[in-house]
Design a protein that fits this description.
- The protein is an alpha+beta fold and about 1000 residues long.
- It is about 35% helix and about 20% strand.
- It is built from 28 helices and 44 strands.
- The strands form eleven sheets. Strands 1, 3, 4, 6, 13, 14 and 16 form a seven-stranded antiparallel β-sheet that branches. Strands 17, 19, 20, 22, 25, 26 and 28 form a seven-stranded antiparallel β-sheet that branches.
- Strand 10 and strand 11 form a beta hairpin.
- Helix 6 packs antiparallel against helix 8, helix 8 packs antiparallel against helix 9 and helix 12 runs antiparallel to helix 23.
Length: about 1000
């Protein structure tokens, strides 16, 4: 037996080794064309006609690349020798409201048209002398707004030529307000960023940086109109320029000019411009960050020093930063940078580099920064060639680096188009097989779906071509960023070779679409970290990229040994005084840095109350419980999950906020329904900081094609149920969120149906579950009926399926709004958001009640600074503080981190578009949270079980609900007895003592 076990162990080791070798080999391989070798794709076939099908997204404008390709095929060429400047005051038409005339803005004399309100517009007429391509741009002045970039759309002759013209971004200018500040631990913190007012000029370019050059607009000879419309933020227009496309010379052409002018190389010069000292930037999210590599300048081993620039926040097309340099003599210099690019595994990123506002030559529009998991020195030059030479006059110059995604632009567009075609094909399969097909049935898909096999093969070919292009671009062999494309390509080929397997693989097919959508979004982010720029003469050696193994090892050892004594929880100034307010925050470090800076600058300055702030891990509330039971609880905790305060209140661990005389005034900052979860036994024990909320999202273009006007978008669940069959007949679906891997979310998914039936989760002060009431039964039937009777998807990536058109309408939270606003430019103007559906009441009103339990702030009972804690909580939840925190957070992390504050007034001040904030506020009129009771975790658990029993196991709703309620009531009773709360038996005893019937 022992000998057999030894042999088995050896065999197992060999098998594991072989598997590991195969995985390594598969991941480290370069391009593999064997999968495509056996596929005979007819190159003479018209790919676009084969792949087009019955595309439900046909109303969308083409991309710029498709627009240009179409005109190129018709022989379009650049216009020559033309330039026209139109003063903004020389308009031919203007909207009746939302515009005004500004005089004397900045250093510009005269009048300028300012578009103030969203959807305000101004129109100009102009004439061009010949057919051809023209480029355009305008000077602009960003007026005071909500700190976001100014966004405008441009129509030519009453139409958008391509979808990117619907969202042209004109960035503001930002600079640091003073020097960095240091806490009393000598750690460095970023200074505040303030906006710099002034006129700027920008060509009409792709706001995502996915097109190298400014847009070309094809115009026919004669008169045309241009309408500029406000999409976001107020701004004034100076002049509009229309001109022949600009020819940027190549390096070879510039080098010939150098020789002709007799320019000479300088000697003995090595200048480093520290990247963290940028003079201007396009975005307040661009800031100084810390790097612990010893060669990064400057370096301190004992404290935080912000010694580099950019990183993960410097990643979005169009973001730029500018540095001022000074050279001691005129001549030819070499340029470069010390940089870190370890963000996209194996993928190079690009930057457009301008000197004194202009591209020195064409190659600088796409300077590549290869991937490496450590610091590198980049010589600005051709790949594997000598550094370029740059002529600089003696004196000051500016160097601007802008995020450029142009090299990937067409590839990302190809993958996005392929994903959309996959979605279209999936809808056609569903039209044949239904939503729950027999995977073993013979559906004869090839006979029922036109060009099924060629379409699958051509989609695989497009992905294969993209893989080749990525390797040609310089992607490292074995890059994990290519694996998604390999997988999708191989699945498409496999389906093409065995079409009978397609119905049984639709889940895999849909998952691949989501993976490709995520892949496109990921590669659109081109992060780069800079230490310093290098300006040097050719006779000087390039600086070393790193400090060497010995120095790095020493730093690592020092950091390791000091980690045993360093306080990682404390943020900013740490006070040792006896009377200091201790605040714990369950959020990320970047978030807490902002909170602490605001406390030191505003709260402590105004009140004199000193505050220590510590971070605790989010989602680990047991840390607070352990601290509380051991007598080490803080005075105030922020970022506490909404269900937690009652757990402490029932244990007499929190201060009843209603003890304070101005509680009602403070509570009026929030929707009344937002305070429900924090009430217990006649008291209130927390204030909401933020709150989630669901909305109804819809695709205008697709619903219009189905005959549904925007005014007819569903307002009630009955209207939703009337719509679903129409969607499914066209291979589409409605989305309602369900998270099967997170049962805790089921209660929030069910809550709207319950509240809209005018029911509650509990009765008799939380003594019993109310889920067996007639109203709750109706809510369960309506909720689960969407999945059983109407067969909507039980799980889906709504963002990607909404984008592809497969799910043109559905309910989702505010994070979907952020995604659609920032990462779906092709849908600009083609999607909308309104309050979620509800149930019509007897008085004709539609009850849209829903909640969105989020984070709270609370005061611990053991505090010796009760009044100071209340002052802090009042300050933190005030409109001014919440607005500033939201602005600072968005400035630091981008619009993806938009703060969904619970303060109604602060929410209105955030940079939402007016139509969107109106819809949100309408939904908030019905904002209602569920009651949180002791033992309520059983309600959460069994609501998920009830859904599973009804939807997955086919159980009758009443049976499933009654079984669940039985278990919930048992746990509620048990917990109430444990904490000495009123139960049925105790109620009977009290009633008997009083001589009355309970």
């Amino acid at each position: 037996m022992i000998r057999w076990l030894k042999k088995f162990r050896v065999t197992l080791v060999v098998v594991v080794a072989l598997v590991c070798f195969f995985i390594w080999w598969n991941n480290s391989r370069g391009y593999d064309d064997s999968a495509m070798a056996s596929i005979a794709v007819d190159e003479s076939m018209d790919e676009s006609s084969i792949l087009e099908g019955k595309d439900a997204g046909g109303k969308l404008e083409p991309s710029f690349n498709k627009y240009a390709d179409s005109w190129n095929e018709q022989g379009a060429v650049d216009a020559a020798d033309f330039k026209l400047s139109i003063d903004s005051a020389d308009y031919t038409a203007v909207s009746e409201s939302g515009t005004r005339i500004e005089s004397g803005l900045g250093d510009r004399a005269g009048d300028a048209v300012a578009l103030i309100d969203e959807d305000s517009w101004v129109e100009y007429s102009f004439e061009v002398p010949q057919d051809g391509y023209y480029q355009m741009g305008m000077s602009y002045y960003a007026l005071e707004g909500k700190r976001s970039a100014v966004v405008r759309s441009v129509q030519i002759d009453g139409a958008y030529p391509f979808y990117q013209a619907k969202k042209l971004e004109f960035q503001r200018m930002w600079k640091e307000d003073g020097e960095p500040w240091f806490d009393n631990q000598n750690n460095e913190f970023n200074p505040r960023r303030i906006e710099v007012a002034g006129w700027q000029y920008r060509d009409f370019v792709d706001s995502e940086g996915k097109v190298y050059e400014p847009f070309r607009f094809y115009l026919t000879k004669g008169k045309h109109t241009m309408r500029i419309q406000a999409v976001r933020e107020p701004g004034a227009i100076g002049t509009i320029d229309i001109f022949s496309p600009v020819h940027v010379p190549t390096y070879e052409e510039v080098l010939a000019v150098y020789k002709q002018q007799g320019y000479k190389k300088v000697d003995g010069q090595l200048i480093k411009s520290q990247a963290e000292l940028s003079t201007l930037k396009s975005d307040p999210t661009l800031k100084r960050i810390e790097d612990r590599e010893p060669a990064t300048e400057p370096f301190k081993k004992d404290s935080i020093v912000l010694n580099s620039f950019g990183g993960a926040s410097w990643r979005t097309g169009g973001q730029w930063a500018e540095w001022e340099i000074e050279v001691p003599e005129s001549g030819l210099y070499e340029l470069g940078a010390r940089y870190g690019q370890w963000f996209l595994n194996g993928m190079p990123v690009q930057r457009s580099i301008k000197i004194d506002g202009k591209l020195p030559f064409k190659e600088m529009d796409a300077m590549s920064f290869p991937y490496k998991a450590e610091w590198q020195v980049k010589k600005f030059g051709a790949k594997d060639g000598d550094p370029y030479l740059f002529y600089l006059e003696k004196g000051k110059h500016t160097i601007r680096m802008e995020v450029q995604v142009g090299a990937l632009g067409r590839m990302l567009e190809t993958v996005t188009d392929t994903t959309r075609k996959m979605s279209l094909l999936g809808r056609e399969v569903i039209q044949v097989t239904g939503t729950n097909p027999d995977p073993n049935g013979d559906w004869r898909l090839e006979q029922n779906i036109t060009n099924l096999v060629p379409r699958l093969q051509l989609m695989a070919k497009r992905l294969d071509d993209t893989i080749k292009s990525l390797y040609e671009l310089g992607v490292n062999e074995g890059s994990s960023e290519v694996s998604t494309l390999y997988e999708a390509r191989d699945v498409l080929l496999s389906m093409a070779s065995d079409t009978k397997s397609i119905p049984g693989r639709m889940l895999q097919f849909n998952d691949l679409q989501a993976a490709l959508g995520t892949w496109v979004n990921g590669l659109s982010k081109q992060s780069l970290l800079l230490d310093y720029l290098i300006i040097k003469s050719a006779d000087q050696a390039w600086p070393k990229a790193d400090a060497g193994a010995l120095a790095r090892t020493g730093t690592m050892l020092y950091d390791f040994t000091s980690s045993f004594t360093k306080n990682y929880g404390g943020i900013g100034n740490v006070y040792e005084d006896e009377k200091v307010l201790e605040v714990w925050v369950a959020r990320g470090r970047d978030w807490v840095d902002i909170i602490k800076q605001m406390i030191d600058e505003d709260f402590t300055t105004e009140t004199g109350i000193k505050v220590n702030v510590n971070t605790i891990p989010a989602q680990q509330m047991q840390v607070l419980l352990l601290a509380s039971t051991s007598g080490l609880a803080p005075d105030v905790a922020l970022g506490v999950e909404g269900e937690i305060p009652i757990d402490y209140a029932v244990r007499n661990g929190l201060v009843n906020l209603e003890e304070f005389s101005d509680y009602k005034e403070v509570a009026s900052r929030f929707r009344p329904g937002a305070l429900i979860p924090y009430k217990y036994n006649g008291g209130s024990y927390a204030l909401p900081e933020n709150q989630n909320f669901n909305m109804l999202f819809y695709r205008k273009d697709i619903l219009e094609q189905l005959g549904i006007k925007e005014a007819d978008i569903p307002d009630t669940w009955q209207e939703v149920m009337d719509l679903i069959p129409l969607l499914q007949q066209n291979g589409m679906d409605f989305f309602y969120p369900h998270a099967p891997n997170n049962p805790a979310l089921a209660i929030n998914e069910f809550a709207p149906f319950l509240f809209q039936q005018n029911s509650e989760f509990y009765r008799e002060d939380g003594m019993y579950s109310n889920l067996d009431s007639p109203e709750a039964m109706e809510a369960f039937k309506l909720w689960t009926g969407l999945f059983t009777n109407f067969k909507i998807s039980k799980q889906a990536d709504f963002y990607n399926r909404f984008r592809s058109g497969e799910m043109p309408i559905g309910v989702a939270d505010y994070s979907t709004y952020v995604l659609l606003s920032t990462a779906a430019p092709e849908l600009t103007g083609w999607w909308g958001m309104k309050p979620m559906p509800g149930i019509e009441q007897a008085d004709g009103q539609i009850n849209r009640s829903t909640g969105g339990l989020a984070q709270t702030g609370m005061i611990f009972k053991d505090t010796e600074m009760k009044d100071e804690s209340w002052e802090f909580l009042k300050w933190w939840t005030s409109a001014d503080t919440q607005e500033r925190f939201g602005s600072e957070l968005e400035s630091l992390l981008g619009v993806e981190a938009r703060w969904n504050t619970a303060n109604v007034e602060a929410l209105q001040r955030m940079p939402w578009q007016s139509s969107d904030i109106d819809a949100i506020l309408e939904q908030w009129e019905w904002f209602k949270e569920r009651e949180v009771v002791i033992g309520g975790y059983y309600t959460t658990r069994h609501i998920a079980n009830i859904w599973n029993q009804i939807v997955l196991n086919g159980k009758i709703p009443r049976e499933a609900v009654e079984e669940g309620v039985k278990e919930i009531d048992k746990e509620l009773r048990k917990k109430r007895e444990e904490f000495g709360l009123n139960t049925e038996d105790s109620a009977k005893e009290k009633a008997a003592e009083g001589g009355v019937s309970p």
